[in-house]
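Reviewers of the previous submission asked for a worked example of the structure-prediction workflow described in the proposal, so we include one complete record here. The input consisted solely of the amino acid sequence. No template or homolog information was supplied to the procedure at any stage.
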Amino acid sequence: MDSDIQLPWQQERVIRHSQRLMQSFYYWTGRSLLYANGSPQEIAQALFDAPFVLVSHGTQSDPIFNYGNRRALQLWELSWEKFTQMPSRQTAQEVVQEERNRLLSDTATKGFSNFSGVRITSTGKRFEIQDGILWNVIGEENQMFGQAAVYSKCKFIT
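From that input alone, the workflow returned the following structure tokens.
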């Protein structure tokens, strides 16, 4: 297997994106996403291996995931390659799509939002997210790169 697929945090674009995730989170919330020191690659690895779920999607009209840390990949039961080809809308069942769309829109306007909600894994298992934060991912010149979400609390629903 290709080492870039096994270790996505070693890819230059993922290292840059990890920096954007960290900087954007701090910009909107005034808090650090992760307390980590070292080179950009070491920080990207720490973010990938962090003890919380972290995902982000791009700015497409039907946004595609462009990042998922190890916890996210385990939760959704997908490889990095498959996860980063999946539209983020597929993580929510149709009955909660309207709520999810409202959250994304509100966040686009405000910069960040707190959220809770039910999502679904790639194999159909439902889980509830509690105390999540969704924020706009921006670049050095405030250009929009998409949105990201982080949470530590989630439980499967039977």
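Residues 1-5 have pLDDT under 50 and may be disordered. We consider this example representative of the routine output the project will generate in years two and three.
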